[in-house]
Amino acid sequence: MNDFLAMGGYGAYVWSAYAVFFVVLALEALAPRATRRRVLADLRGRLKRRDARNEASA
Amino acid sequence: MNALTLWFHKTGSPPTAYRLAGRIMPWCYGLGLVLGLVALYGGLVLAPRDYQQGDAYRIIFIHVPCAWMSLFAYFFMAANAFIALVWRIKLSEVLAMAAAPIGAAFTFITLVTGSIWGKPMWGTWWTWDARLTSELVLLFLYLGVIGLHAAIEDRRQAARAAGFLALIGIVNIPIVHFSVNWWNTLHQGSTVRLMGPSKIDASMIWPLLLMALATHVWFFGSVLARTRIGLLELDGGKDWVRAIALDDDKEAHA
Asked: Which pTM value belongs to this model?
């Protein structure tokens, strides 16, 4: 196991490269979830304002 | 309208495309993850040590697939931008803009992992050679497209302007690809070739190709996730989006 982690002396390079790969792709996969929540919340706000306007003018 | 045109119009209509994308997306993410993990096992455990580079070469199993993706995502973005500009198809505008952040992510990974690989092998983190510089330009092109798209209020005008920029930037793609043949450089030449024999052993090439497949599938999952959001933004005032927005609120408070 230690041999595996050491990667023949290149452990720090190999594992940091793989860490970058995983972290960036994880963020890339999570980003759309956050955007989706924000877009839908924006839409609800706009709908609410529109309904309020319609009621005021009716 | 004939059957094919009808099918095309229906599938391309935002609510249908949204539903279809939602059904395919989890399979892409799931398949990409499974294939990627198998490829990692093959690359990190099963593949033998390289006779010249030792274990440092194992960075190839993420560096090269991500580099291919950085070009593939750009090609996907530019092709959709072209369709969007010529035929004014809304879905293509959304698809093109969905690909930009994913391409930027893969380009970023390519640059960073390449730099980490370069330090022990070349003795430097960075050199201003043609391959590295053109890949950096690729990252700036992605960021330019994302920035331009975000800066314009009207979603359709934003997609059209950013799509135009994406099309101009396509001149950079062959430069990235052929740079190692055109100029002398520290960067090694192509390892895997479509024409002629690859310069890599079978035990090393299968994890590499499998990871390439995994990143492609993952890319499409992510494109679909982002396309769904783009469609919601594009059709913001429509009834079907309104229903989704209200449903989402109920779920959040349940």
From this structure: 0.91
